[in-house]
Fold this protein.
Amino acid sequence: MNREMTGESGEFAVRAEGLCRRFGALQAVRDLSFAVARGEIFGFVGPDGAGKTTIMRMLAGVLLPDKGEIFLEGIDVVAEPERAKPILSYMPQRFGLYEDLTVAENIFFYGELFELPWRVRRARARQLLQAAGLLSFERRLAGQLSGGMKQKLGLVCALLHTPKVLLLDEPTTGVDPLSRRDFWAILYNLRESGVTILFSTAYMDEAERCSRLALMHEGEIRLCDSPARLKAAMPGALLEVVSADPRAAHKALTGAPGVLGLLLMGDRVHVRVDNALRRKGELEARLLGEGVGPAAIQPIEPGIEDVFVALLGQEGAA
Amino acid sequence: MFERLEAILVKEFLELRRDPWAIFRLIIPLALQVIVYGYAATFTVHHVATAVLDLDNSEASRSLISHFLATRRFDIVDFADRQSTVTRDLDSGKATLAIVIHAGFARDLASGRGAPLAVAVDGTNSNTALISLGYVGEIVSRFEAEEAAKASTVKAGAAPPTVTVSLEERPWFNSGLEDRWFFIPGVIGTLTLVQVVNLTSFAVVREREVGTLEQIMVSPIRPVEFILGKTLPFFLIGLADVALVTLLGVLWFHIPFVGDPFVMLYGASLFLLATLGLGLLLSTFSRTQQQAFALNFFLINPIFILSGFAFPIAAMPRFLQWLTFLNPLRYFLIVIRAVFLKGVGLSDLWQEFAAMALLGVVMLGLSVLRFKKSLD
Ligand SMILES: Nc1ncnc2c1ncn2[C@@H]1O[C@H](COP(=O)(O)OP(=O)(O)OP(=O)(O)O)[C@@H](O)[C@H]1O
Ligand SMILES: [Mg+2]
């Protein structure tokens, strides 16, 4: 591959080529390639064990790939991980700050590690804490914060040194919706200033927030595109069945002619069919015939989860 | 060169200050163990089974025996009538100690020529043996003082009555442990080693296990900064431990401290360097605290056994003797005993100092090389 053309040309903030990593007999990541433009929010979506954390660690330079190359802002991360560290930030899936230090002490510590001048650190910490809604918790021990506050503190520490590339491994898992909103507000702000953000998530709804998205399964990227295009490319059309007994409806519709896939979503069933107009009436009749009772059926736009299930079958729905 | 060292140091001390168990983990077990060892080694021996053979059968000899009875530290299990009985008592374990008062005891006592008293001791339990011998010495000197007082009232100016205690060597008596105060200085070295190796090997592994290491690895910190930052606090804690335990030994147990405290300080510093290196090296071989524990468990006992603390190195097979050269405790025990009891200075101990420094530098260097900023 010609480096002048891609890796170091400045066109991409992150570029990975042919990444492989195995743990013993298990191939955690296989032959993965992708490129992320500057200022993108790029999401890795996949069920548990898909290899998201493994990719993030390799990108952050704390885990060596068996094969393949990674360039971050033109720096070869595999060959020179230390050169990449000042410009990148990585938030591990597991809380990596010191629980027995206070919020302010953790911030002080990470500021020191990156050798930030005292004034810069102070101003920046204030601004970030404010945005995260943590200003009044400065003296609280990190271990006593709620899950969402911990994640926001992690983000604050990760952003202290104004990284160019931000790697977030499942940053919002276990975070309440309000904190998640704060969190995303900060991320959108960052994108405005040209920071490239790569994150992983097991939440399908969150995947809709990124500019591009890689659907991962068993260490491979199965599909990679913008959420809108992924949805548009889903084969078939989607009908939503609202019924008093969604389980029974799910069972009754399994194997019906024209049904490509079924997904139980709480009190409703998403049915992927070959032709929405033609099958709507047929499915209504079938539900009545099977004794499930009346059900409201209407065509809807697919979500990422539907795309994922269409791609991988039921196993992919984490 | 060490810009981020301070950051780690500050963090370590903040964490330490916030740890309510720190004092229990760092100070109390050590102090407690020294006290327990100290008492076990000095004061808790009562009722030593004793065989007595009185070949003099004089007023003086009977008086001496009654002195032994009076303390209750000795239980006389056999009044023997011949030497062979005494030997049999010791061999069979019926008696731990045998006192043989030779014929002419009273005569020699009165003349001031030194009355012959032979003591034989079963050395299999060297502590009991040492302590019992100490008691024998005390009782004999008290006896001498009383006899002297008596004699001076009878006729002034005569030579003071003395008893010459001769120690009969038993084949299994550990003559390397003749000094009564051999024990506590050794305990200081041993406990410090266990404490410091434990603390350091767990400290790095804990960060790995808790997940904070992963976050630190993505910062520009260099391995040597991280490692020094993690170990310097333990160095200071180790020094404080040595000081504390030494003071305890000197003030509480009245162990003579003959030497120069600075020699002790240098020795302790080099010893700590080596133990920190060992702990760190162990931590680079473990991924979990459980593994670190297993490694510690595996190594501490051999280190103890091959240190010369309890078993003389000279009596070991050649191969084990060679192994002891890798053991920092071996050198420190020599240093600490020499400084404590003999007041030996730097000029005689430089070989031990050099060996500890070398071990420390090699092990610390290896740890820095082995510590990769990687999760592999
Ligand atoms: N250090 C390791 N040693 C052995 N196997 C590992 C290691 N790290 C990851 N794996 C395995 O590699 C596979 C991918 O793991 P990875 O953690 O990357 O998945 P993930 O997508 O992050 O999953 P999750 O959503 O559960 O975090 C899993 O099967 C996991 O068991
Ligand atoms: Mg993961």
